[in-house]
Amino acid sequence: MTRFLLRRALGTIGVLLAVSVVVYAVFYLAPGDPAQLACGEKCSPAQVHQVRERLGLDAPVYLQYAHFLQGVVAGRDFSTGTGLLHCPAPCLGVSYRSGEQVTDMITARLPVTASLAFGAMVVWLLLGVGTGLVAALRRGRLSERLLTALTLAGNSVPVFVTGLVLLIVLCAQLQWLPFPAYVPLTEDPQQWFWGLLLPWISLALVESAKYARLTRSSMLETLADDHIRTFRAYGVSERRLVTGHALRAALTPVIALTAIDLGSLFGSAVLTESLFGLPGLGKLLVSSVGLIDLPTVVGVILVTAFSVVLANVIADVLYAVNDRRVVLA
Fold it and tell me: Residues 150, 151, 155, 159: what is their CA dihedral angle, to the nearest 10 degrees?
């Protein structure tokens, strides 16, 4: 296990370096002048030149990237025009537009996206795995056909449509739920829960459809295995057979899919965050792309990439916990 984690740690560093190189290359090929955007439309060429020097944009691309890596490892000092601003490690740079440290901007928004992602994950796993399990156990019956039709319908509806309909019906008309608003968990756990319940449900209704289909197909395949038939021949009860053996084996692909979805959700939940007014990382990423705010974009993408890699490492460990036949290599 220790060797496995060390290899994955080295692999994570390589992935993050590759991602940062690609993002830097793409943004320096994109049109637009970050110094002009940071200074404003009414700035004179001399003022734009001063901003370019202050932000370090007059240096070669490779040197700017080297300074970025230096900041991540050991911290970095930035000129504010009147003095120096120290950015401690891990420093992801300073926003071209606001002058804030990117690390602080991400830290302020990370709890919002983390709350949205983990809460939605719990709901979609309960809905998806439960629906898929029932559909597999009632194969060929009317209830199984209805559940399959519902999962197909849920998978075809975009999240912003589902969220908008639920917002109008549950909040505006029926008033069963309060309008979504993020309240930190440490301040008021109850308000935190009720403020995020509707976004969780909106994401879960869309995501749970594929989990239901995956669980159903995996359960049907597992129930047809030879070892399951052997357990039945030895008189093992159906409940113990399903919950103790078949479901456990069928959850392996579900774990893999959960790791991918959970990790990518840290940077791709922009539609949900925008619809419900949640100030998370996805919303920050989209606004930063429009402003060509390279440090903020690189920082958010690196956090997203790290979350994907970390989620997959955790999934690999859970493979071994869930199925002892799995060997970490």
Answer: 70
Average pLDDT estimate for 104-110: 93
Confidence of residue 249 (pLDDT cuts 50, 70, 90): confident
Mean pLDDT of 90-110: 88
Write phi, then psi, for 277 (nearest 5 degrees): 70, 35
**Structural Rg of the chain based on CA atoms:** 24
Single-letter amino acid code for the residue at 15 = V
Confidence of residue 327 (pLDDT cuts 50, 70, 90): low
| The residue type at 101 | Q
Q: Residues 6 or more apart from 282 whose CB is under 8 A from it?
A: 113, 266, 267, 268, 269, 270, 271, 272, 273, 274
* Number of residues in the chain: 329
Residue partners of 87: CB distance under 8 A and separation at least 6: 71, 75, 76, 77, 78, 93, 94, 101, 103
pTM exceeds cut of 0.90: no
Of 96, 37, 50, 103, nearest in space to 72 by CA: 103
SS3 assignment for the chain: CHHHHHHHHHHHHHHHHHHHHHHHHHHHHCCCCHHHHHHCCCCCHHHHHHHHHHHCCCCCHHHHHHHHHHHHHHCEEEECCCCEEEECCCCCCECCCCCCEHHHHHHHHHHHHHHHHHHHHHHHHHHHHHHHHHHHHCCCCHHHHHHHHHHHHHHHCCHHHHHHHHHHHHHHHCCCCCCCCCCCCCCCHHHHHHHHHHHHHHHHHHHHHHHHHHHHHHHHHHHCCHHHHHHHHCCCCHHHHHHHHHHHHHHHHHHHHHHHHHHHHHHHCHHHHHHHCCCCHHHHHHHHHHCCCHHHHHHHHHHHHHHHHHHHHHHHHHHHHHCCCCCCC
